Fold each of these.
Amino acid sequence: MAYRLLIDGELVDGASTLDVINSATGAVFETCACADEAQLEQAIAAAKRAFPAWASLTHGARRDYLNHLADAVQARSDEFCTLITREQGKPLAVSRIEFDMSVGLLRWFAEQDLPLETIRQADEGRVLEQRTPLGVVATITPWNFPLQQLTLKVAPCLSVGNTMVAKPASTTPLTAALFGELAAGILPPGVFNVIIDAHHLGDRITSHPDIAMVAFTGSTPTGRRVMGSGAGTLKRLTLELGGNDAAIVLDDVDAREIAPKVFQAAMINSGQVCLAAKRIYAPRPLYDALCDELARLAREAVVGDGLEPETQIGPLQNRQQYEKVLEIIEEARSLGNVIAGGNALNREGYFIAPTIVRDLPDSARLVREEQFGPAIPVLAYDTIEEMIERVNDSEYGLGGTIWTNDAERGLEVALRIQSGTIWVNKLVELPPDLPFGGVKQSGIGRESGLEGMKEFTQAKIINLANKVAA
Ligand code: NAD
């Protein structure tokens, strides 16, 4: 079998197999290993055994391992990009962006260190802070960016001295298996393990007594289950969850100039991005013009198999997501006006035409829920005050974008939006050095940056006097 599990340094077949579907055809295109509970136990035990030696390496030694891994991944770039497109569906050019981000993450975190810090210094002594690794960390990742989501966790987690068990999403396991294959030839046995499941091992991972932390990215409902399941062993958790980001257009911009940027922020990866613009707020004087432009862009976008070079928008990743988005569109059709798309494409695979809906009430599912697909509501507002209140009236708070030619006005609005990140006049930008994460039910904790790296450690305070007091 080509795509295997990685347990204790060995690539092994699973207790069973898992079919992987190409979302552009809806047909099985590959089969990979699928673990049972005994194999999960072996992986956790291996990670536990490997931890003391890995944690006691110098940071420089771990940096060299990670850079070596980055080199090996880089050397297989074409294979990774094609595989991401085949199992995830995104256009090859977007897989390339994902791939470059992933290698960048491995290299950036390889270089970062969290050395012993002096936090107080006096004649009679000092206070130091040591950041120590936690032990075995489990990572559970979603299907929208299978390689970037994995490396975003692997790189900081291993760099600070933890060992890992990685569980990719069951519908996109191949990229992680290929990554595991390369890691097998580079990292010491047990340091990094890959366990692939068919949605049946999550609960065992998140409740396991030998797992110190779960770094989870996925939907808010699953995040709640992870938190509940981890309570029994007081797991350390990072939860990077869903979002319903607003794209806010202020009244000083030209609707025609802004529309392509808003469209791109909404439709990248067919809208299957936690930070995609998922509801668009336009000032009433610009509303008709912006709706018309977005509808034109939606009609003109080339939808197709991500492997075809002209494709701009690929399929939905899996049948469940495809059906959910179609259901949300149906409700929107009954409450508002669908001005572009609104239907599945009449072909194999999970394709939905890019959809723009106007005149919806705020209570519509397309406005309130995370649709995670190529269907976008455009909403009119009359005052900044009212718009901010409507934007913040959400259980989510992940990101958001503001478009204005007056940066100070943009900043004033940004300061009042409840979210983990706000971009003003920028498309989603995620460099490795900026911490990222959600507020409210979009998550707990941060990824990226030194703040994200610290999540994989705990602080130990050493309070030291130079002499025993007389
Ligand atoms: P999901 O919640 O269905 O699955 C995520 C992962 O959890 C998968 O690996 C899945 O197998 C696993 N899982 C399922 N049930 C589990 C359980 N009971 N215990 C433990 N693990 C379990 O999410 P998805 O549909 O794969 O991904 C889409 C979601 O991810 C969207 O909501 C999106 O916004 C979110 N997301 C968030 C971020 C972020 O950084 N905040 C980034 C990417 C995606």
Note: The mean pLDDT is 98.
Amino acid sequence: MTPAAPTVRTTCPYCGVGCGVRAEARDGALIAVSGDPDHPANRGRLCVKGSALADTVGRDGRLLAPTVRGREVSWATALDAVAEGFAGTLREHGPESVAMYLSGQLLTEDYYVANKLMKGFVGSANVDTNSRLCMASAVVAHQRAFGEDVVPCDYDDLERCELAVLVGSNAAWAHPVLFQRLTARRERGELKIVVVDPRRTATCEAADLHLALRPGSDVALFNGLLAHLARAGAVDREFVHRCTTGFDAALAAARDDAAGLLRETGLTRQAVATFFRWFAATPRTVTLFSQGVNQAGNGTDKANAIINCHLATGRIGRAGTGPFSLTGQPNAMGGREVGGMASQLAAHGDFSPASRERVGRFWKAPAMARAPGLKAVALFEAVARGEVKAIWIMGTNPVVSLPRADAVRDALRRCPLVVVSDCVALTDTTACADVLLPAAGWGEKDGTVTNSERRISRQRPFAAAPGLARPDWWIVSQVARRLGFEEAFAYTGAPQIFREHAALTAFENGGARHLDLGGLADLTDAQYDAMGPVQWPCPADGSAGRGERPFADGRFYHADARARLVAVRHRPPRQRPGAGHPFVLNTGRLRDQWHTMTRTGTAPRLFGHTESPVVQLAAEDAARLGVDAGDLVEIGNGGGRVMALAEPGGEVTPGHLFMPMHWCEPFTGNGRVGVLVAPATDPESGQPESKHAAVTVRPQAVGAWLRLASRRPLPAALLMAPVSYWTRLPTRSGWRYEVALQAAADVDDYLAGLCAAQPHDNRIEYSDSSEAGRRLLLERQGAIEMVAFCAPGRGALPAASFAADVLDGALEQAPWRLLAGPESLDADCSRLVCTCFGVSEERILQAIAAGASSAEDLGRRLECGTNCGSCVPELKALIAREESSTERAVRHAV
Ligand code: SF4
């Protein structure tokens, strides 16, 4: 009998929920993952992305060896090239000419070493992170209100609150495990959920009230709420008097805004009144917010408007209350702890003389940075201007994710030295690198991450890193030593770095900062290895700091120990629609993908839910533009253009669009939505306004559509003109493509190109009477090499998953039957709703038609929704849709 595979307890590498994972690995291969029932963040649950972790690890697509200008080299040669490049740039142009751009995917130990090198030894604070795009506004709002970047809530507050207000947060998709904790309580009648979001998202399926406010009008709404709380006598005068300052000014600003509340938000009086009444009447209220608040030209003010309402009511520092910023990335919070942002120093330090002196003395640093460095958008603008001449990018993909992404790519191509460390070989950013450094990935590296509730969890290795890949902390330390800083970077492992980080948080702290990990500063290697999830603060005296939870004693971290209510006023978004660009584009996340798909994009089943770059638009707008579902449209502005398939419906209001931010060059041509986002940033946080781009929409004529699956990737020439749109997704045994050709007359040449590119010894081809109607199957030694379906209209094609099933051998039929299409085989090619159990929309609709009337009922019949639960909101939406169409039919018949 095969012995049971050893289980390693680690942490999911995707979102800021920070779920504990039990990974079963044998011989370095991940066999299975499951949620860790003992981890307080998830208590055994995982969402679809976490459940699919085993599909996303492995050697495919990994960066395995260092390269310098395309040539594979040894580590010594690559590290010398980086050190000499940085040293030469520093000598000639000074510390402001070099930069690092880091990632919330890095472990705290990696982050710490990179920041120490730049801010203490190179003397430059030009170290920023992709967390700037995610929650920088929340960080600044916390600092303004509390005097320190402290998230005041715990996940347990979600079990204790009676009202959960989700603002700009599609938690059903972006933080699914937390969302399920809320919905479980709502189903037991224990709390109400209010969703504040311009878009009708999956999260709204569980809302008692959805406030579809006008984009960017959150300050007006929460100022209106503050004014109402004062009117209704719901202000906690004693708390305000004892623990805060700024109430009168904040209330005056709120009252000024309140007059225009309905006009600015576009909400009905009744909806606003209901929200205000519920909030005022429910002491146990948690307000959760994420990207819809942060990614705005006034994101910091939005967050402070929310925090003001909690401070005014004293709903902070107590169980079941508080403003709760949900972090996007797995270690955004850890990055904040070690000063990962250009505006911070390590251990929640800033650039005041006292803070610089303290951190510098602890590090024995020869060259402390004197002032905050360039924030992400400004940093890449400085690269474009030639002011930053050497940049090191770690574990992130700014050529996709930053505003004006095309300009970022151009800037990197012109930059004299671009170093990229990544675990993935082919990304839009690695394509711009002079030096590529292979980094260890999830399951190979050792360290810690901190989730949204300040809980530090271990990521533990269960496999050796492939090829020459090394941990990021090791790579940075090696370069630091070559720059002459041997002693300060003589690290031998992650535990040593963690101890130093923990000691710095406690160094001359004395209660001045909530971030105090002094109790972890003396862990032995074995204790570090065995460390369970631990929430900060954890000071050396073993106490829980200045209270059971942040601010439980009513004391904050400004010099006078009082919190600040910040007077904020409604300001419209920086980018506004106009005659040239009449639509507002909102960007966001898909349920089954993560970031720029570098990891989730390797798992075929994670494309079962959404397989194309689609743009949601209102049905009225689609009708006016003459666009049907699935039609190709170009979305553009001065930053560039994006090609996407139209998805008309009721999710967005007229004049508004929504498109996911994940798509990038390895998976589609012209799908990077970042090119459309303007470099307009919040003046306080530097976070870009990624939720509000002014764009045009132009329907595109397509002469012919193809869906094909191929054992080999198509050559680049087959993805260029006359191709106007393409997607390339993995299948179990190759790749599947969707391609749009500009003219039907291009079809024959294109098919000839396909045949020339694919080795084959047998070719089966059908044509129909239409100009573009073709079906083609290529075989080699009896195995299918490629299958292609071509039609003048997209709707006439078999589903893309059918071509993949043909290639993967899932349909054991003669070639001619396969070419006849799914109808002749009675194959189900509808979209996957439940990714965990592979349950399609068609099967769910059949079950509903057969009498299934609840998500639980569907789960009993088909298993859907019974593992991670991410699809439950969609199951409910399908039931509601089918019930209402049945009702309509009955009414019509009557
Ligand atoms: Fe990972 Fe999903 Fe948990 Fe986020 S909610 S940490 S993606 S399993």
Note: The chain has a mean pLDDT of 93.
Amino acid sequence: MEVFIEKDYEEISRKGAEIVAEEMKKKPENFVLGLATGSTPVGLYKELIRMHKEEGLDFSKVTTFNLDEYCGLAPDHEQSYHYFMDENLFNHINIDKKKVHVPDGMAEDPEAFCQEYEKMIVEAGGIDLQVLGIGGDGHIAFNEPGSSLGSRTRVKTLTQETIEDNARFFENIDNVPKYAITMGVGTIMEARICLLLANGAKKAEVLAKAVEGPITAEVTASMMQLHRQAIVIIDEEAGARLKRKDYYKHVEKMADLLKKKK
Ligand code: PGA
């Protein structure tokens, strides 16, 4: 796992976008990008939009798969993740909407839809890079504590903590959906690169558990420790509880030195 500790939210977003753009350029014909919602990746998406507008970063051949969607919300519902992605990224870049995939919260047969979603990911060639946030309860996507670490895309019941965390986006807490369709931990683990972002003091404790604690279904983000190429980008506040903070900074400095020597 590579851990980058940046000064602030702006720096996390910039570094995250740089990595996404670099990987996209390595596979210009058929890059598959996994996307996340929540407040954390908004800055990264803003930076990708800037790169598209000012530097010509091309999304026309990129396929995307979003991690999750609330059950019962249609794509045009303002709180749906589909709507969120349109507003925060898709409407501002040259993506082909036929290549965009967000789980269907209105699927008549959610279980069948979940299997179909898994199939679509495989048919697209698998996810090259998956953007991730981390929930206050340690979840990645909506894989709440206790989720099987081998789980696949399925319907998940949200925890009270997640419902409360997300209530800020709804008029009142009773309107927050109680279920979601989410990629499983096992699905996420198959992405070639996982890019997890976190910022703010509120995430410090759970982030330390995910990065340096035991691998456990109690904190599904801890599975990143088993991933072949997990990159964690956080700000100083979110990194405040990490034991090996100085070491991660030292590693980054040494890697920069090596790059300069080349
Ligand atoms: P946040 O949510 O980015 O709004 O903090 C993260 C998550 O729940 O995965």
Note: The chain has a mean pLDDT of 97.
Amino acid sequence: MTHSLRIPDLTIPVRPGALRPGGVGPGDAGDPAVNDVDVIRVRGDARLAGTVHVVGAKNSALKLMAAALLAPGRSVITNVPRITDIAIMGEVLRRLGCGIRFDADDPVDPMVVHGGVARSRSVVIDVPEQPGTEADYDLVRRLRASICVLGPLLARLGYVRVAHPGGDAIGSRGLDMHISGLTRMGAEISGEHGFVIASAPHGLHGAEIMLDFPSVGATENLVMAAVLARGASVIDNAAREPEIVDICTMLNQMGARISGAGTSTLHIEGVPGLRPVRHATVGDRIVAGTWAFGAAMTRGDVTVTGVEPGFLEVALDKLVSAGGLVETRGDAFRVRMDDRPKAVDVVTLPYPGFATDLLPMAIGLAAVSDGASLITENIFDGRFMFANEMMRLGADIKTDGHHAVVRGRERLSGAPVRATDIRAGAGLIIAGLCAEGVTEVSHVHHVDRGYPDFAADLRALGVEVEPGTAPEEPDLTI
Ligand code: EPU
């Protein structure tokens, strides 16, 4: 069956082009701004100062929405960020037969309202007794996280077809651990015409699974399958991210029996059914980390609220090594940098290591630090692709495999650059604040996929930002 894409909630800010195949921005036939791309221009020599509030984590809320599929009835997830990816996940669930409504968070936290628009919402999900069983490619290619409907639908219905998401701008992204884990639980899985097809006509059974790598997505899919499987499961070498703890907390509130969340070993006793739930999304540590690095790079002073600072322990410790002052209290922290940062080495690793999603910010910091930094990426093979854009801003970066040597410069130089993914886009905008003159970052709909109104937050922190459009460079390839 084919569908034409509707954006489920027009009150969610979605830039033109953000929902098109590959998220390539405006330019389809019939679009009035046919040759324009979405841009943000920032003036350099800026300093971030003030307070910014962070709402729920994209990478949690997306999975919490999928987890709601496990129980018929109405689940409500609060503190959900107003970003494009959530709108797409809403559409995935709607096409599976769920009712989806985005409501104001209750109560609305005044900290999350800017210009009369709240950054977070509640999503009300009405899950039918018999949801659909197919997630098609036109949505999955826009939102790789759609793959997380695989586990819950297979567990509940015994059959599911989900389009294979393929790789993306940060690298090749396998599904082998999702597939081998579900196979251990008794599923039969095949690939056909770009779809992953999984069936378990007699239901799933518990299994002992050792992951080759603590994959976030595989851990989530396998937990969501195991909660309704017959008998006990053990997932070893499981991911330990706060978002994993969040989904396990929600599942336990729904009646699941999971222990060990936040450690490398998850024990799950399958139960015959789950009940709907109301759950608040954990704060977004990657958005919080973006502001922390922004404060350090611009020699600013930023207080971030809404996230547990312990989730960023390694990242904040790097900023201290770079010469920053970091204060933490409750669910807030403050980062102040008075002098030019000192170069620090960074190695990305699964949680609690330094998050790969903060790699562009680490490169940005290194690019303006005093000295040379060795940055090592261990999670995604294409994460350094965006380094070429950073070099257009004058950054001195040499990459070799999964290492980059960055020699810091006193100052970068403003230029037009292109956002290739969510985090690269945010990293380039922040780097532009440390450049001389104006930096124009194009294809910023990528940033809207993960940051609710990034431009407004920048303005609130005292920098000059101008969203707009610019002519698309002609494609001269033959
Ligand atoms: N991998 C495999 N086989 C698998 C599963 C993963 O080879 O079966 C590989 C991947 O190819 C990758 C590595 O393992 O090289 C890590 O993948 P993981 O499964 O941990 O990542 P993910 O679930 O696909 C989530 C976040 C990413 C974040 C990573 C790592 C969501 C929606 N995405 O991806 O976030 O970088 O975990 O922390 O939760 C972002 O928000 O911009 C983003 C990319």
Note: The chain has 14 helices and 28 strands.
